[in-house]
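#struct-pred

JT: dropping the chains for the assembly here, can someone run the whole complex?
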Amino acid sequence: MAQVTFSSWGRQVIDNRQGGDAEVEIAKKKLPISFNGEKNIAAFMGWDGLILHDPRVDVVAMAAEYAKRVQEDFCCAKCSPGKKGTKVMQDTLARIIDGKGAEQDLATLENVAELLQNCKCTLCMTSAVPVLDTIKNFRDDYLAYIRGERKPKANVDYKVKLTAPCQDKCPAHIDIPAYIEAIKELRYDESLAIIRESMPLPAVCGRVCPHPCETACRRANVDDSVNIMVLKRTASEYERLHNIQPPMLPKAKKDKKIAIVGAGPAGLAAAYYLALEGYPCTIYEALPEGFGGGMIAVGIPAYRMPRHILQRDIDIISAMGVEIIYDTRVGKDISLIELKQKFDAVLLAPGAHRSKPMGVEGEDEGYAGFLAGGIDFLREAYMGKPTGMGKRVCVVGGGNTAIDCVRVALREGAEDSILLYRRTRKEMPADVWEVDGADDEGVQFEFLVLPKKIVVDDKRQVIGVECVRMELGEPDDSGRRRPQPVEGSEFIVECDTLIPAIGQDPDLSFITEETGIEITRWNTVVTKYVPLKSAAGRDLNDTMGNPLSRILLTDMDGVFASGDAEIGPLTVVACVGNAHRAAKVIQRYLEEGQAYLTDDDFHEDILSHLGVYDKNEEVPWLDAVARFNQHEIHGKERASKGNYNEVELGFSDSEAVQEAERCLRCYRVSMIAV
Amino acid sequence: MVSLTIDGKAVSVPKGTTILEAAKQVEIEIPTLCWLQKVSPTGACRICAVEIEGIDRTMTACNTPVKEAIVVTTQSEKLTRIRKQIMELILVNHPLDCPVCDAAGECELQNCCYDLGVNRQEFAAEDVNPPTINHWPLIQQVPSRCVMCEKCVKVCHEVVGANSLFVNDKGDKAFIDKNLASCEFCGNCVAVCPTGTMISKPFKFKARPWALRKVPSVCTYCPSQCQIDINVQGNEVFRITSDDQGTTNNGNLCIGGYFGYGYINSSKRLTSPSRDGKPVSWDVALTSVASEIEKIRQESGADAIAGLASPRLTNEENYLFQKLFRVAIGTNNIDSEARFGALRALSALDKGLGLRGASNLINVIGSADAVLVFGADPTAEAPAVDWQIQNAVRRKDGKLVIANMRRIKLSQFANSQLSYKPGSEIALANGLGRLLVNRGLIDEAYLNRIVANLDEMKDQLASVDLDQVVEATGLPLAELEAAADLLGKAANVAIVFGADITKSALGTAKSAAIANLAILSGALRGQGGLFPLDEKGNIQGLLDMGVCPEKLPGFQNYEQHKAKFAKAWNCALPSGGQDAEGILQGIEAGKIRFLYLAATNPQSFPNSNRWMQALAKVEVLVVQDILPTEVTRLAHIVLPGASFAEKGGSVTSLDQRVRSLERAIRPVGESREDWDIFAELFGRLSKTPLTFSRSSILTELSTLTSLYGDVCFTGTDRHRPCLKQPYRPADKSLNYQLISASDEAQGLQLLSGKSASHFGTTSTWASGPLAVEAEGYIQINAEDAKSAGVADGDSLKLTSTTGSTVGKVKITSTLPQGLLFAPYNFSALGIQKLIPDGNNRTSVQVAKV
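RK: done, full complex below.
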C-alpha cells in the first residue's frame, strides 16, 4: 500500500485510492508517521488541502468536523462572510452527515467557499480549501451520505490546532496575529497580555530578537514582511511609558517548589510561567545583583538592550514571587545534588557562557592584549570592569557576539575596531542589521582572513596577528562555501588587543557524574524525547539537530534542562519557547507525577517541522503601504566612548498602528485524525 | 499626491487616503455598512469590496489605502453578486421584527439591503444567537439583530475611551458584551448602531423615528456645548441625537446629552407661578415681585435688593438680568455661583494674560503634542475635552500629564500621573516651571518677546526651592522631572485646569500659578492652549455678560466704564455692589431684604447650610426655576422658568464659540422663557416698557463691548457656532504673577466635586442619569475604610466644622489614603453643608453609622 492514499496538499492532487503509489514529498519527509509516538496520523487536513494516509478515514465526517471546529472554536466573528459563511458551511455539512442533505447543498458549499475568499483574514478563507477539496475529490462519499447510505462512525479522535506562519515560526509560538490585531485596535494592554502568554520578556524580544517570525511573514509574498518585532516593543513600551502596573495575578501559592539554575532568558521564562501557576521558584544566579538576565545582560550590549528596561522585565518576574539569589554559582556555592534535595524540581538553565578556543598559535601563552573571549569581554565591559583592551582592537569571528565586541570596543574607547572573518560578509552568521550597524559606527572589516599566530613584542604584549588570506571553495554541510587558505598569502594585522569571538559553549562542570545526567559531545544536557520518524525513515529533528519533541527531563528524576545548555547556543526567543515548555512539563511532573508532552505540544512540533509558511504562495493583495522601519540614531557619535545610549528607537504608537494594519492575519487551522 | 483611476475617472488624493475616500471625491459611492468615519476602519462587512486591476482578489475600499496608478472598479457583475450574497449571509437568521424594531425607519441594514436589491435568501443555518441582554441600565442589547460591524465597540473604545464593549464568544455565537464597570452610559453605542441592536431603554417603543421632529440646538449641561437635535413629538422631548457631520462634537454625546433630557418633561416641573406656596397668575406673581421691590427700595434703598443669576441661563437672559438689576432696580448687588470658581480663574487669567476664558478652540487639544490636565476631571466637567485629550494622546502620539489628587479616568492614558498632596497645587506648578527652566526646556526668545516682567519672572523662578516642592507635593523629584520633560519637549502644549483648582481656597492664586506655567511651557502660542474648565453650561456667557458687581458686559471694569453704559442706557447706574459673599452677609445682617434667585440653587454652594439659613431669613425670596427644590419651598414667590429645550437664545462654550438654542417645545404648563420674565419685570419696574429681541440685545452688546467678532445668528448660519474675538497676546503683554501660598491640609480631607453622571442638580430629576447613579455617595480609599470600619455600601457619617451628613460608602482605588470624595450634585446627600465658604475641601471626621 502506498504511504498516502490521497493528497491535495499544495494544490496538487495525488490520488492513490485506485492503487498506484505516487509519493507525496511533504507527507514523506515532513510529517511523522506517528502523532505522539503511539498513535499514527491517519489524515491531515488544513489550509492547503488534505493528506489522507489511512483510506478508512471518513473524509466527509472529517470535513464536517473541521468546519465545525473552525466556526465554533476559532472564527473571530469579526467579518460577515467568516462569521456567517462558516456557520452555513458547518450546518450544511452537518445536515449532510445527518442524512438530511441534498445534492444542491454541495453547490451551496461551493458558493460559500467562494464568498469566504472575501474574508477579512485567512482563517475562514483557508478553511474552505480542504472542504472544497473533499467535495471535489470525494463527491461519491458525499452522495452516499446524501442518499442515506452512510452513517458517521462514532468517536473519531481529531486533534485541532490554530496556527499562523509567523506564530509557527516563532520558537516561543507567540500569537502574533492576535497581538498585532490588538495594536491595530489601540489595545496595547491586550496586545501585551497576548504576548506575555508566550513571551515573558517582551521588552527584550521587542528589541533584540532575530525575529525568525518575519522570515515566515506572508506579507513578504506581497511586498515586505511586517515589522513584527518592533510592534512587540511598542506593546511593551506602552505599559512602561504609561507607568501601568503589569496585570498578571499568580494563582494561589502551591507548596511544591522549584529551583532554577541561571537567571537568563530560559530561567526567567520558566520561573514566570511556574510563578503564574503558583509555584514558588528560586533562581540561583552566578552574577551579582544588578546583572541578572544571563546572556541578555552580559551578552547583549546596553545600546541594544538598555539595562533599566531589561531590569524592569526582571523586576516584574520578581514581583510575581520569584526569588533570585544572586552571586551564587551552582556547583561552587551550592551543589546540584543539594538543590535536588531541597526542591521538588530543578531546572538547569545555565546558558552558554564559555568562549570557545580559536586554535591560533600563542593563544595559551597568556600574552598581554590577548583576551579570554568575546563573551568575557562583553561581560566585563557590561559590568564596568577593566577589560584589558587597548586602542587598536581585532575581534575574530562572524557571529553576533563578534559584532557586539567590535561595537562595544568602540564604546570602550578603541580608536580602531577591526573584525577579522574567514569568509565574506554574505556568509556571516550575524544578523545583517547588526553588521550594518557596525559599519555605520566605523568598524573596519577584514574578510577572508584566518588568524594563524599571535605576534607579540619582547614584553609579551600583543602587537599584531598574523593572518592568511582565504578564498571560498565548495559549499560545506551548512551550505556555505568552505573557505580555504591561499598559500603564501600570510600578512600581519597590527593591533594591541585580540579578542576571539568564535562561539560559546555551556559550562556544565556543575553537573557532576554522580547525578547520572548525560551530556552530549556538543556539551549540552541530554533530555528525554519522544522519537518521531518520517515515512522516509528519518528521525524528526529541530533546526539544531535535537530530537523534535523533547520532554526536557534529564537523566535525573525531577531535574529538567532548558535554554542554551539544552538546545545548544541559540537565541533568546528559542530559550523562552523551550523554557515555557519546560515549565509546563515541570507542572505536569509536580501535579501528576509524570513528565510528558500533550497533544498540543506534539501538534505544535509537527506543524513547526512541516512549516506553515510557503514562500512560493501567491498572495493577492494591494501593496499600498510599505514596511515601516523603526527610528534609529545614525552616525559614529552613537558609538563614541562611553555612549551606551540605545541606538534603535522603536515606533511611535501611530506608526505602530499603521504598520500593524499591514498584517494579513494569516491564521489557519490544522486538524489531524489519529 | 497619489493618482489613480476609479471606474474610469482619474483622481488624485493625498498618500494614505483610502479608496473609499478617494471614490467620494469623484462622487462614486461605494456601499458600506460597517464604515464609520470617526473610528478606525473595521472592514467587517466586506460590502465595500472593489476590484483592482492585477490583484487577484477583491479589496475592501474602506481600509485599503490608494496606490499610484492603480485601476479600481467599484461596480461589476462580480462585485454585485458578492455584495448581494454577503448581505444574504448577514441576513441569515436576522429576525423579521422590523415593524417593532426601534431602528425601523433609520436602519442602515434595511437601507443597504434595499440599495443592493437583496430580496432573497439562499443560505440557512441553525439560529444560535444569544438572548437579549436586559440587565444593563439604560441600554438594551438585542444580539439577534447585530451585524457585528463593531461601530459600538470602536466608538466606545476609540472615541469615548471607556473600553466597555467587546466582542464575546466565537463564530456565529459571538455577540457584543459589556464590562459594566467601565461603561459611562454615554449612549454613543446606541447612536452609532446601524440596526436595532443597541437600544436606548428610555426611548424604546416610545416613538417612531420618522414621526419625530428634529430641532437643532445645543446641549447646555456642560460648557462643551455639544450640538444636538432635540427630537420632539407634540410638546414632548423623546430623545436627543447628534449628527456626526457638521457638529463640533462629531455626533458624540455623554450621559447628560444623550440620556439626561428626562427632566424636561418631568411631571414634577414647576408649571405655574406661586406666592406663599399657592398657585397664582403671572400677573399677580409679577405684580407682587414688582411691588415688593418698590416697597423695599423705598424703605431701605435699592441696595437692600440682590440677585443671583445662573450659567443655566442664556447670554441674552444674563444680559437682561444684570440690566434689570442695574437699570430697573438700581442696585449692583448681582452675582452668581461663578464667584466660587470660574470667576477666580477668569480674574487670574485676565490679570496675568489678558485672557477671559480659554485661549483657543478645544480642537487644538486634540492635536497637542502634550496635554497637562491640572486639578480637573474633564470626563466629568466637560466630556468633549476628554475626547479631545484622547484624540491627542491615543491617536496622535501626544503625551499626557495628569496632576490630580485622585486618579481619574484619563489617568489610564497618562504618561505621568502627579498625585499631589491636597493644597500643594501652587508648589507643584511653580516646581514644574522651575524644572522647565532647569532642564533647558523653555523658549527664551519667545519669553523675552512676550513677557512683560521678565526679571521678576526670573527672580521668582530662581527662588523656587525644589526640595520644598518635593516635600509639599509628596512627589519624587524624578517624577516631576519626567513630567517637566514631557511638557517641555512638546511643540504644542495644551493646559486644562478645573474645579479642584478654581473652587478651592486660593483658587485665584492657584489659577495664576497655572497661568504662569502656561507662559513658560508655550501653551499660549499658536496651536497650544490654556483651558479653564467650569462644569456649568453657560458659565462663559454668564461671565461675558458682566453678572457680577465688578464687571460690566464684556469684562469692562464697572466703576471705570459705568458712565458709558449709563449714557447708552439713559439712566444713572448704582455704585458699589455686593458679591455673593457680601449678599450672604447682607442677608445675615438684615441689610439685604430681597433676594432674587434666577435658575440657581444655593444648595450646591459651599457652606450650603449657611445659605439655606439666609434664604429662610431673607424677607422676600423670589425663585425663578424649573423644578421644585428646598429653595423653591422657602421662596415667597416662585416664577416657573423654562428649560433649554423651551427657549431660544445664545450660549457661549468653554472655547468661546457662541451657539444658538432653538425652541423645540413650548414652555411646559404656564411656565415662561426666563428672558421673557426678566423683560416683563424690567418693563413693570422701569415703567418704560422696552421691547427686547435677540437682535436688539446683540446690537447693544456690539455697541457697548468688543466681545464678538463674527457672531452670526441669522439665516442659514443660525446654527453654525460662531467665534468670539480670538486671543492674540501682544508682545510684552504677559505678566508672570508672583505667587507663593499654600493651603496645606491637616487630617482626613473631604473633596467635593462633580459626579461624572450628573450635571448640577438638574440631572437628579432626569431618569436617565438616575438609572446609573440614583443617589450620592462617599468615595473612600480601602485603607481609610478599614480604619473607619466600613465596607462598601455601609453608611458613613461625615462631620466638618460647618455641618455633617450621612452617605453610602464606595471603596475606590482612585483616591489616595487620607482623601475622601463626594459629589455635590445630590441635595439629599448635601455634601456642600460640610464645605467651608468659598472652598471645595475640608477636614472631616468620619464615623460608622
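JT: nice. The longest helix of chain B spans residues 282-300. Residues 294 and 333 of chain B are 16 Å apart (CA to CA).
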